[in-house]
Write a structure and sequence with these properties.
The chain has helices at 2-10, 21-41, 96-122, 124-129, 132-165, 168-175, 187-211, 220-227, and strands at 44-51, 60-67, 76-80, 86-90, 179-182. It is rod-shaped. The protein is an alpha+beta fold. A hairpin with an 8-residue loop joins strand 1 (44-51) and strand 2 (60-67). Helices cover 59% and strands 13% of the residues. The protein has one domain (15-213). Helix 2 runs antiparallel to helix 3 (96-122).
Length: 234
């Protein structure tokens, strides 16, 4: 209870850090992390083929629906042939690992940005009191930059595979007598990959500004003062 009261009493809202690269870039990371996992996690698309019959007006349209987390084999679709017989087929491929990993990094990045923004804006004195806060922040930010590189690269490859597996021309070949009609809209997923690499740039670039807050970038006398819990000299 005392620790909660201590945190409450130590809170002092200061929007000044938002005018500095450290806080401003963190806000951008917060926004782009939301865009990254939202454009991927909420996606739903469809690919369309048809069974050509004579006369053409009796042709049957077939729609295969798919979406996040892109376990395509879990999406069956029914084909009605010209003689009204039916069969069930499935899209092929499981690309959930790269998609879920990417979304996971986006969600955790969003949560970390939220926590550090609270720290920057409400507990700036605590953050700068010792070197521990900036050092931990630097390590975690660098780790997220690496994870954005890995997850964005993996998801870019996964998206390429999703596009191939849901290509109506590829799906129509499995039906043998079917024809491709409409390609699925992938603009949202293309944007998700772009957001991933933008996050990589933001998090990697922010490492420099956080590094400037650590004693590694300060003179030894100032770093020693901060280690002792005192305020840095002018």
């Amino acid at each position: 209870m005392a620790s909660v009261q201590g945190l409450a009493s130590g809170f002092s809202l200061d929007l000044g850090p938002l005018k500095e690269p450290l806080g401003f870039i963190r806000v951008l990371e917060w926004v782009f992390a939301i865009f990254a996992f939202a454009t991927t996690g909420g996606y739903s698309g469809k690919t369309n083929i048809k069974v050509p019959c004579e006369p053409p007006s009796s042709s049957h349209d077939v729609t295969a629906v798919f979406g996040y987390p892109f376990r395509l084999g879990a999406h069956p679709f029914e084909i009605t042939y010209c003689n009204d017989s039916r069969s069930t087929m499935h899209l092929q491929g499981d690309f959930s690992s790269s998609a879920e990993f990417y979304v996971c990094i986006g969600v955790f990045g969003f949560l970390y940005c939220t926590a550090t923004l609270i720290l920057y804006l409400g507990y700036q004195s605590v953050y700068r009191q010792t070197s521990r806060g900036p050092i931990i922040d630097l390590v975690v930010t660098a780790l997220f930059a690496f994870l954005w590189l890995v997850s964005s690269s993996a998801w870019a490859k996964g998206l390429t595979d999703v596009k191939w597996a849901t290509n109506p021309e590829h799906v129509a070949k499995k039906c043998q007598i079917c024809e491709a009609v409409e390609f699925p809209s992938m603009g949202r997923l293309n944007a998700s990959v772009i957001f991933g690499f933008l996050n990589l740039i933001l998090w990697a670039g922010n490492c420099w500004f956080i590094y400037k807050e650590t004693p590694f970038h300060k003179d030894p006398s100032q770093a020693a003062t901060m280690e002792e819990g005192g305020a840095p000299g002018p």
